[in-house]
Design brief:
By secondary structure, the chain is of the alpha+beta class. It has 2 domains: 77 residues, no CATH class; 47 residues, no CATH class. It contains 4 helices and 8 strands; from the N terminus they run αββαβββαβββα. It has a 4-stranded antiparallel sheet. It has a two-stranded antiparallel sheet with strand order 1-2.
């Protein structure tokens, strides 16, 4: 997480945020424009495995001019695994990665997870696209 915070600062992704709020569940970034929030989501997808959901809520509607104001929400879930942590994979996923055992070690986290089977030393890569459908 500290590494990700450093990347956000280094690439100046946080500058377009109106406000950043820290909670026990994570960080909340508030933006004036939907496109600015989308840029943060796109940035996160390029540096860590994650999945996201979007939603919109009607804030106001002007009947006379037929205009709508929406509040857009992007909820991003980062992969909850760090380097050198033990991971228990679902059986079907372990089989699809070349019949690895279900208990593996995460040796590296980039845009994908690099996993090593401690029994056979078999190495596999779990991409963001696979993680996002789990």
């Amino acid at each position: 997480v500290l590494y990700l915070e450093q990347l956000i600062l280094k690439h100046r992704v946080h500058l377009s945020a109106l406000k950043v709020k820290e909670t026990s569940e994570g960080l909340y970034f508030f933006f004036a424009q939907k496109q600015e929030a989308r840029k943060l989501v796109d940035f996160l997808q390029t540096v860590v495995p994650c999945r996201y959901k979007t939603s919109q809520e009607l804030v106001s509607h002007d009947i006379h001019s037929n205009t709508f104001q929406y509040k857009h929400t992007f909820s991003v879930e980062l992969v909850p695994v760090c380097k050198n942590e033990v991971v228990c994979l679902p059986l079907s996923l372990a089989r699809s990665l070349g019949h690895m055992t279900q208990v593996v070690i995460c040796t590296r986290v980039t845009t994908s997870l690099h996993l090593t089977d401690p029994q056979s030393l078999q190495v596999a890569e779990l991409s963001s696209s696979v993680y996002s459908v789990l």
